[in-house]
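User: Show me sequence and structure for the first protein, then do the same for the second.

Assistant: Starting with the first protein.
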Amino acid sequence: MMQFLGDPAFPRWKLCVQYFLYYGVLGCVVPYWALFLVARGFDAHEVGVLVGLFGAARVFFPTLWGALADRAVQRKGMHAQDYVYRFAILFSFLGFFPLVQHWSFFITAIIVLVYGASWSGLAPLMETRCLRLLAGDMGHYGGVRLWGSVGFLVMVLASGQLFDWVPIETYLPYVMLLGLLLLFAMSLSGRADPSILEEAKADTQRFERKASSWVGLLKNKQVWTFLLTVLLMSLSHGPFYTFLAVYLENLGYSKGAIGLFWALSVVSEIIAFSWLRKATTLPRNQVLMGISVVAAMVRWCLMLIADQGVWIIAIAQCLHAATFGLMHVASLSRVHELFQGPHHSKGQGLYSSLGLAAGASGGAFWSGFSWATWGAQGTFLISALIAFMALIVLVVSGSAKAKSFSRRVRQLTPFVAKERL
């Protein structure tokens, strides 16, 4: 697998470009999606529901896309995953296309669900393919993934300036569709070196003989503890992804300035990925996740006083390096540990659906209600409390793991002593 790092036959740069385009599309939409919906006449409750519906689609469909990809790889080889990936991009384009027109809340909700069902397959498929080619090397993964952050950064700045000049409710769909077309075109070009594909197929067959059943993996307590931590962290980010732009606009910032604040968070994320790429040794996943959770608590507390000055918002955005960058890398590494071989894509889908998407959907729903009822301060206070709950889960699970290890050591001690005698 490590041929990927030095063999010029594999077009590594094409992975980087696809990450750039995928996250570039997100940079066009995520920071401004709530503003787009508000500009189309939806109120806070409806915005929360629409954002939540998109997240709800991502709860159910990533695992299905992952299962489809795993099945295709097992039957046709690793290159079959590319076809599933292209199919998901094409359906994302077709699902989003109707939004070039204005629709009622009910029709918009249906469009969002259809689009979310298609879009939800892209990230798991892309991440799984990348990790397989990198043989799970998270340091080199950071070198590829940072191009996604660069794409997000470039497009969030460009989109912020664009939407200051043209109506966001009209032009955001066209920018989104153009990005999807470019991503689809890029996915059509090039294939991996055949020898690498054969090695990947051999790895998959070897894991098929050794791996536990899918149902057996779902009974693993470590899997559910990990997913609960990710879920809580994602829930705590609900107001950030749903209402940050609205909050900053209410504080008097322009769309261009909002884009700069988002860009600051992405720059900090790029720095985190660059550090991970250069680091010779990394802390354990549990440690990285703990740092991320504590940073999230601090970040949401800072947002309580965001009206006190621009530097408060700047510090909060810089903490994105930990709350997203470190958390994402630690989580992907954990997925690679828990789900291997024929279960890798399904595991990635499970992480994306029950961890990230369920949290994003729930975060949008609860923050929409909270924002309308208790305002920004009350909502970000709840976010900090949810992050604190994630910290409790990490501490308790870490303690349980340590006790289990200690118990095994005590059980082995008498046997070790007898051997010495």
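Switching to the second protein now.
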Amino acid sequence: MAIDEEQVKNWLLDEGLIREKIYDENANFHYIINFPNNNAMDIINPKSKEDVLIIGCATEVSHEEQNIIKNSPKEMNQEFIWKIRFSLNEMLLDFELEHPNDQLTRFIITEDIFEDGLTKHVLIKTIKKVFKGKLQCIWILGKTYGSIQNNDFPDVLD
């Protein structure tokens, strides 16, 4: 059974989250949302799997932070990558880490919701969960390399 785009769109509109709908040849529909504020996330219903909604967030590590990582000891970088893996795995999130030479450049966090479990409550909770996964990575990056200011992200988002 296919995901009801109108229902998903209405839920996102109710919460004031939609930034734009974009064309995606591989998707039945693809929305860019703001959660929270100006943090972009994707809501995708892929053509290849019509009964699933993918909530995702891709994050590029800044050039400044990449330089800090590049100039750090290899063992420190490897330990950092493992901390990210363990943390996201504990949150039961799907993820892809791009880390050539053990230097994180980008990470993508996703979570699927299948049609038979899709409700507004589950959608919003999943959006929050994916964002909190991103936040966790940013905090681990800052703690490991000292490159993030304490006020870049609030302590609690609920």
